[in-house]
Design brief:
320 residues, mainly beta, outer membrane lipoprotein receptor (LolB), chain A, 2 domains, 16-stranded mixed sheet, 6 helices, 37% strand, globular
């Protein structure tokens, strides 16, 4: 005898069904329509290795956290950008004001060191440092600077924060990977869904752990509705802290990027750097695996700026 029948017999003998139970609203579960093996998911991640250089035109929108406990932040106007990426971790980003087409900032990294050149004359500066360092105390001091504080989120963002979003690290022989399912309650985006309606969905989560490490270095989330699609990437530091949370919203047509998967919209959250960044990729101007010159990832300061330019080496400030 099934459990509901037993329960009804014990508690509701001689009573109508309405006396022993009542209808309740629950969050509907969308049964997954696609399946994949661990090997399939690893292959999908490693397919990104086919992209070794990438040139993109993008729109950028920054958000900063101002009062974490109150849930308050600030959203900045969308800016235009040109993004150059080279595997494994080289990057160059030029940011322009959307209306005036004037340069706001340039960022670059060769994988080891980064440079941030802030253009506007009132707080012009060249900030340098190491990719592997956090500089929490140094950044706090820069934000208190009456001039540099006007640069807003540019003081927190680092060029290497982009690389994992567009050039994910491959899962090689030195990495263990395992898969589990996560069921998440989220907003119902199906056509005709009621406002604020929710559904529960199933995701594959592929966790990558470097051998000998005590915590994962990355997680890849795949939607199981329709076809298997990468929708999220989470990056952890060696201590197991979540340092980057990347969400992908749709992918461009394969024809736009020479047959390679490229996200149409990416949201990069850096919880310990108090900012988020939304990157929208334009279909025009995409170049995949183009040969880039050696100086593509090195900033050149205009000669006329060199005399009065503020140079801030965060490694030197840390030593002092």
């Amino acid at each position: 005898m099934r459990w509901p029948v037993v329960l009804a017999a014990v508690l509701g003998a001689g009573l109508s069904p309405g006396c022993i139970s009542r209808g309740v609203d629950i969050v509907p579960f969308l049964a997954p329509t696609a399946t994949a093996t661990r090997e399939d998911l690893v292959a999908r991640v490693n397919a990104w290795e086919e992209i070794w250089t990438l040139v993109l035109r993008v729109d950028l929108q920054f958000e900063t956290v101002e009062e974490t406990e109150k849930g308050k932040g600030r959203q900045y106007r969308t800016a235009n950008g040109r993004l150059l990426l080279g595997r494994p971790s080289s990057i160059r980003l030029n940011i322009e004001a959307p209306v005036l087409s004037a340069d706001i900032a340039e960022m670059a990294s060769d994988g080891e060191r980064f440079q941030l050149l802030i253009h506007p004359p009132e707080y012009r500066a060249l900030i340098m440092g190491s990719n592997s360092a956090s500089y929490q105390a140094e950044k706090a001091k820069l934000e208190q600077d009456p001039e540099l504080g006007k640069a807003g989120p540019l003081l927190n963002i680092r060029p290497q924060h982009f690389t994992r979003a567009f050039l994910p690290a491959v899962i090689d022989s030195g990495t263990d990977a395992f898969v589990h399912e996560e069921q998440i309650t989220e907003r119902d985006l199906r056509p005709g869904a009621k406002k604020d309606a929710e559904v529960r969905k199933s995701y594959y989560v592929l966790t990558a752990v470097r051998r000998g490490a005590g915590s994962p270095h990355a997680q890849f989330w795949f939607d199981r509705m329709g076809e298997i699609a990468l929708v999220r990437q989470r990056v952890f530091d060696p201590k197991g802290y979540l340092v980057t949370d990347i969400r992908y919203d749709g992918f461009l047509p394969a024809s736009a990027a020479a047959g390679h998967p490229l996200p149409a919209r990416v949201r990069i959250e850096r919880p310990y750097d108090d900012y988020a960044l939304v990157v929208t990729v334009r279909e025009d101007g995409i170049q995949v695996n183009r040969e880039l010159p050696e100086n593509a990832f090195v900033l050149e300061v205009p000669p006329e700026w060199r005399e009065g330019l503020r140079r801030i080496d965060l490694d030197e400030k840390t030593k002092s």
